[in-house]
Amino acid sequence: MKTLKITAVSILMVFMTSCKVVVNTSPDQTAGNSKQSLHNISLNGKVFSAVWQQNAGEFRALCYQAFNLAQLRIDENLKKPSKRPLAIITDIDETFLDNSPYAVTEAEQGKDYDAKTWMNWTSKGEAKAYPGSLNFFNYAASKKITIFYISNRAESDRIGTLKNLKDLGFPNADDAHLLLRGTTSDKEARRLEVLKNYDVIIYMGDNLADFSKIFNKKPQTERNELVDQNSNEFGKRFIMLPNSGYGDWESALKGYNNQLTPAEKDKVMLENLRGY
Q1: How many C-alpha atoms does 43 have within 13 Å on its Cβ side?
Q2: Can you list the domains of the chain with their CATH numbers?
Q3: Which of 194, 128, 106, 122 shows the shortest CA–CA distance to 154?
Q4: Are 88 and 199 in contact (CB under 8 A)?
Q5: Closest CA to 237 of 215, 208, 204
Q6: CA–CA distance, 256 with 269 (Å, rounded to integer)
Q7: Phi and psi for 179 in degrees, rounded to 5?
Q8: DSSP conformational letter for 206
Q9: Measured in Å, how far apart are the chain's first and last C-alpha atoms?
Q10: pLDDT digits (tens, 9 = 90+) for 134-163
């Protein structure tokens, strides 16, 4: 992997400086000098997230914590009678496969996500597994629990995705258990297909929409309220993995949409920050 020309410290300094600009200037001033002061904080933020994801013991600890907790939930469910076979539904990207090298390489080129470069990455099948994930999924398989991988990767990513899963040793790594995005990113129809024949005991993801349709396309305030209303599900049926790099939380920010320029997205992000 190429060596970054931007250090973690410089990224953090940019971020802190940008936050200070928002707190100490008027909205008009902020809008006027955003291109000069922000230095594309959205891309730098993704790189800083990758620095944490690739290096921090705290990140590893959160992964182990999630998978250890999920294993406890398996053991609890195995004690309950079930007339149907048990299953786990899991997302892939930033739930147990680490795509931070892709984010870093794109940022080095001053770019964000791009479908063509993303396929170049997935076709390699070289993403590493999150700490604790392989042991967890193989433990589930040893207990006769079927794993379904419901991902919003495109069908064009299928070959590379299956290669990646098989090379790492994940169970049920075949076409029947890999349900990719069709005409919609909404995962509900795919979840319902699994539920026709299985009792799904655990849902795993890094994004709220990985768990239930109630979280789909909701604004930030409503998403947060729904999390609070369903707080008892997290750590039980819903197991969340850490991903600060990207997700629906971005598009849920007030004023954010994917048609904005990078500088406009940066401005929206900073307008959604609190200082003191």
Answers
A1: 20
A2: 8-271 (3.40.50.1000)
A3: 122
A4: no
A5: 204
A6: 8
A7: -105, 105
A8: S
A9: 39
A10: 999 999 999 999 999 999 999 999 999 999
Per-residue 3-state assignment (H helix, E strand, C coil) for 86-125: EEEEECCECCCEECHHHHHHHHHCCCCCCHHHHHHHHHHC
This prediction has a pTM of 0.85
Strands (E), the chain: 86-90, 97-98, 128-129, 146-150, 178-179, 199-205, 238-240
Structure tokens at 171: 């169970």
Q: Is 183 helix (H, G, I), strand (E, B) or coil?
A: coil
Among 270, 268, 229, 271, which Cα is nearest to 251's? 268
Q: Which one-letter amino acid corresponds to residue 146?
A: T
88/258 Cα distance (integer angstroms): 32
Structure tokens at 226: 């729904």
pLDDT tens digits, one per residue of 219-236: 999 999 999 999 999 999
Distance CA 45, CA 219 (A): 21
